[in-house]
From TrEMBL:
Segments passing through the bilayer: none
A Pfam family annotated for this UniProt entry: Sec6
Record's function text: Component of the exocyst complex involved in the docking of exocytic vesicles with fusion sites on the plasma membrane.
InterPro entries: EXOC3/Sec6, EXOC3/Sec6_C
Protein known as: Exocyst complex component 3
The keyword Acyltransferase belongs to this UniProt entry's keyword annotation: no
Annotated source species: Polioptila caerulea (Blue-grey gnatcatcher)
GO biological process: exocyst localization; exocytosis; protein transport
Amino acid sequence: SAMEETDREAVATAVQRVAGMLQRPDQLDKVEQYRRREARKKASVEARLKAAIQSQLDGVRTGLSQLHNALSDVKDIQQSLIDVNKDWRQSINTIENLKDVKDAVVQHSQLAAAVENLKNIFSVPEIVRETHDLIERGELLQAHRKLMDLECSRDNLMYEQYRMDSKNTHDMNLIHTYFGDMQKLSEELAKQLWMVVQRSLVTVRRDPTLLVSVVRIIEREEKIDRRMLDRKKQTGFIPPGRPKMWKEKMFNILERTVSTRIEGTQADTRESDKMWLVRHLEIIRKYVLDDLLVAKTLLDQCFPPHYDIFNRLLNMYHQALATRMQELAAEDLEANEIVSLLTWVLNTYTSAEMMGNSELSPEVDVNSLDALISQNVVDQLLSKYMSTLTSNIIGWLRKALETDKKDWIKETEPEADQDGYYQTTLPAIVFQMFEQNLQVAAQINEDLKTKVLILCLQQMNSFLTRYKDEAQLYKEDHLKNRQYPQCYVQYMIAVINNCQTFKESIISLKRKYLKSDMEDTLSISHANMDATLDIIAKEGCSSLLDEVFMDLEPHLNELMTKKWLMGSNAVGTICVTVEDYFNDFAKIKKPYKKTMTLEAHRRVVVEYIRAIMLKRISFKNAEERKEGAERMIKEAEQFRFLFKKLAAGSGEDTEGLCDIIEAIAEVIKLTDPSLLYLEVSTLVSKYPDIRDDHIAALLTVRGDASRDMKQTIIETLDQGPSQPNPNYVPIFKEITVPTLTVPKLLK
């Protein structure tokens, strides 16, 4: 058993301890001492055990007595519950009889409310009067407070009536009619509020508290609206005139005000003012910017944040502007008006002068604003602009040319530029017009600018063709009567110089307005224009030379005649006349003037040789031949001197031309006829375009060659080699030899 087990464990432990104490022999002496100590320990342990058991027994005794008391308490409670149950069953009937009392209480509270309401009901007319006066005096908050009280009385009465008898419309109408004036008060007050709202941007500067009061009234009404709608959900009842939705009305009023503000800025019409649209747009810009700045800095503080008043207004302005711009775009606009409108819509609107104003950021972000007019409408306007501009440019160019032509017949010389070259105003007028249109187009965008430039150059191209035709007509008219126009030469020079100015202007216009990557698209039309201008200049120059040679004609006719041989001064006169003309030709610009000098030189030589080939003289003897040849050499020298002087500074080597006259003179001068073939063959090898008829004519002028001799020389020449100067430009091919000897009559 457990007891025995314990005893065994105790004995084993004791044995161990005794064994531990008696390890050495000398410890046996202390056995008695050990025994006493162990006896003391044992007595102490037993005492502690007794005490513990005693306290346990006391606890058990107390617990038992408490359990006994609890049992008797439970018995008492059980008895009480039986009694209560008996009483309750008896009193159920009594409670049934109290229903009348409850009804009386309800009625009492209703009557109390009615009595309370009576005070209000009787004072309704007076409160209506007071409220009306407050509205008149502009004390809107107090007026609204009273209006709310009146509405509250009416609504409570109606609600009570509805609860008691929701089908009784007669009583409902009675209440409604009795409070009828109150509805008018509400409308009067609203009218005052909307007036303040309409003028809010002005009011906020002068009297912000008034605006704040209006916003507070609207907020109160919104609260009542919400309460009434909640009650309707629960009970189905809502008073007449609810919800008032004054906040929504306020935003509608603001929207109308903004629209009117923008529409009302058009002060003028096209009839009264050419600049009507520019003005209209500028006023809009100023108003909108001012309004939005006020809205941001002042108005925002008068409204609760959830109204988001600034953004709502911003939206309204944007919408109103979009509507206005679409209306304007739909009108029949002129070209300059289209530009004004598009510049404003595409650039001004988002610029720092308006929506991009630094004071409006960060609330206004120009990148997130929608376009005021659609791309489609923009494209329509641009194409209308381009077609109007096209017809305008055609008209302007035609007019410019007509004006220029009127100058051509003036009796005063054209103006000269700062370097003394004659010119007319035509190139300046044309390019100034192009520049203006390009600057205007650049305001809209790069793409339009390029289109306008291409248009200008296309029109320029066809204009130059007309210019060429007009110059031709000018020349033809002059030839009918050379006395008229008086300053023909000077104006023809101006026309030639204009060609150079046009060339330079086209280049500078392209450089200024054309992106380099677009260069290729215009190179063909540019080449065409340059070619046309060169033709005009060339034809102009040749018509001026015709002018010179018409004056030289009588003197050229004198060459190689008897009179000439006798000592006429024809060549002297020719030189003076040419020099005189070239004083005017000095007003021709460099590249053309150089060509002109060369051409004059060449033509003088051609005409001189032609005079020889006309066989107007046939020398009688060696003496005459010598005299004639020396005169020819002397005259060649005069020409050489003249043209050297005219070509001064241009570095042209035109020596070779006069050499031909000298070479012919040498053939005529030759005294030994046996050397004639040699001399002629030298001439032919230098100038291989000399034909047989030229040689025949030359030998005829020489006067001493027989028909056979001519025949022999000509036949032998055909086999000879030619060694012309590589720079030689054929000159004989344009000289014809008359077959009949008519010139003999002229001697």
